[in-house]
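Box 3.1 A note on notation
Throughout this textbook, protein chains are presented in two layers. The first layer is the amino acid sequence; the second is a token string describing backbone geometry. Keep the layers aligned when reading.
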Amino acid sequence: MEQPVDQRMGATTKRATSPVLPAPRVVVRAARPDDPVAGLVFDAAPRAYTALAGSESRARAAIEQLWRMPGHSASFEHALVAELDGRLAGVMIGFPARDRYRLHLALLRKGLRFVSPRRRPLLLAALPHLIAATPRPPRRAFYVGTIAVARHARRRDVGSTLGYHAELLAQQRGFPIIVAHTGSRHRPARLALERYGLQATKDRSWGYVLYAKSVGVPELKP
């Protein structure tokens, strides 16, 4: 028998301070290496992944293999998955913001072998611009890098339930804030984050905007 969502995630006594309650039929659990999430992760940013890998098929294959590898920012070890009626419905990838650069660089090192040799110089040359276009989150935050929902599960509160569990993770690990990036001109994504209670704190009009939300954990002094 499946345990209730909150019990499975070890949240029997503490609740996230979210304006959206988790959907009762959505089961959230820790991700596994064999979870078939490559399509979901790709669909979250298809143009970016295709541009990096050189083709859609190459990008999907790379995500599938990288997901199974530990030690980087797209690994199963930093993810939760959602199931709806026994089917995979969504994925959330998140980790401490202070580890963001280290994990992204590890992803770059592991992922270069999936990029065609002709595209590698272009990718490396674009890194300084990407870094400049992305506001840096506070080190004390929990960073949500990806929330992706399967097509069959959209408009069924899967994304908001994963966001709720991201808050629970932040609380359990002692992080007072959750943060996320999205494109400055990506209006639908910005509205979704704002509906969930996040507020824009830093905006690069030519790049990305940083959203943040307090999750009610007292901030510890170093």
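The helical segments are 5-8, 38-44, 46-53, 56-67, 100-111, 120-133, 158-172, 187-195. Confidence is low (pLDDT under 50) at residues 1-17.
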